[in-house]
Amino acid sequence: MVADRERADSGSYRLLPSPETRELQDASRRLFVASTPGEIAGVLTEAARRQSGARSATLFLHDPDSGTFTGGDPRLQPEPMVIDFLFADSKPLVLPHRDGMFIAVFPLMVDQQRVGLLVLDVTGMAEEVARKGLEPVSLLADQAAMALLNRRLLARSQGESALLSNILDSITNAILTLDGEGRITRINRNATAMFGLSGEAVGKPYAEVLTADVAAAVRELLSQVREMGFAMEKMIVVKPAQGLEIPIAVSASVLRGENLASLGTILVCRDMTASHELERLRHLDRMKSEFVANVSHELKTPLTSIKAYTEALLDMARDEQMRSFLEVIDEESDRLLALINDLLNISRIQAGRLKMNFALVPPRAILDEVLGLSKVQSERHRILPEIAGDLSPMLLDKEKMKEVLINLLSNAIKYSPAGGDVHVRMRAEGQNLRIEVQDHGIGIPREQRDRLFQAFSRGDASETAGIPGTGLGLAIAKAIVEHHDGRIGFESEPGRGSTFFVLIPIRTEIRRGEAGSELGSLSE
Question: Could you tell me the CATH number of the domain that includes residue 446?
Answer without folding.
Answer: 3.30.565.10
